[in-house]
Amino acid sequence: MKKLFLIAVFAGGFSLANAQTGAGTIMLGGGLNFNTQSSKTAGVDNGSTTSFGIRPNVGYFLSDNLVVGLGLGFNSSTTKSPAAAGGTGEDEMINSDFSISPFVRYYSEIGDRAGAFLHGSVDIGSNKTKMTPAGGATAESTGSSIGVNISPGVYWFITKHIGLESTIGGIGFQSTKSKNAANVETKGSNFGLSLNTTLTVGLNYYIF
Q1: Cα gap 168→66, rounded to integer Å
Q2: What are the angstrom distances between the C-alpha of 193 and each of 101, 122, 151, 154?
Q3: How many other CB atoms are there within 10 angstroms of residue 45's CB atom?
Q4: How many separate helices (H) and strands (E) can be counted in the chain?
Q5: Would you state the pLDDT for residue 198?
Q6: Is residue 87 very low, low, confident or very high in pLDDT (cuts 50, 70, 90)?
Q7: Are the C-beta atoms of 33 and 52 separated by less than 8 Å?
Q8: Contact at 8 Å (CB) between 191 and 204?
């Protein structure tokens, strides 16, 4: 791996109330990441992958502790690898996906700084993959998905304006549909329940 870095940017909003989760608060947040990696074996290039993603979201508190909002997501990755033995040039694969996720979240305070929340979302996505072999024609496949997810989480305001939060597993259902370069369609669905042991932390900034 040559380089690997992750940039996460989160912002908050302003409030017409005296509490971070009070009615009238507007929350703005999101994440940004960029990653590039490559490898060699015995001096022979194995190829490289570069990816980029952005995930903005906005929410509005309809009442104390109850927020509705919308999240967007875009990710793109490009993988280049040497052509098969005897060939010249590079094979290239480009993946891109877009998602839109309306959500609702309810907060429950535990003390002045901390508490728990329940986050529910409808996640609608589409994706596209383009594969171009060295010296060959591009083949394209597409897909789409829709799902419902519910996740519990916890939050903690480390200062009056800065809060940390983390989700803890969740339950969800997803339906998928894809079509390959030969125009053959595949449909699927899955239902899952998970309790994560890996801690993923989000940072929010509130102005009120």
Answers
A1: 19
A2: 19, 16, 10, 18
A3: 13
A4: 0, 11
A5: 54
A6: low
A7: yes
A8: no
What tokens does 192 get? 């899952």
Q: Can you give the C-alpha Rg of the chain in angstroms?
A: 21
Q: Which domains does the chain have, with CATH numbers?
A: 5-205 (2.40.128)
Bridge partner list, 164: 156, 203
CA distance 134 to 166: 44
Six token digits for residue 6 = 């992750």
Which tens digits make up the pLDDT trace of 17-41?
Answer: 335 778 888 887 777 889 999 888 8
User: What gap in Å lies between CA 202 and CA 119, rounded to an integer?
Assistant: 14
Q: What is the DSSP string of 9-46?
A: -------SSSSTTSTT-EEEEEEEEEEEEEEEETTEEE
CA dihedral over 161, 102, 105, 21, signed as positive or negative = positive
Inter-CA distances, 145 with 19, 58, 190, 193, Å: 37, 22, 11, 18
pLDDT band at 128; cut points 50, 70, 90: very high
Q: Which two structure tokens, joined as six digits, stand for 140? A: 């394209």
Please report where in the chains the tokens 């409030």 appear, as a residue.
15
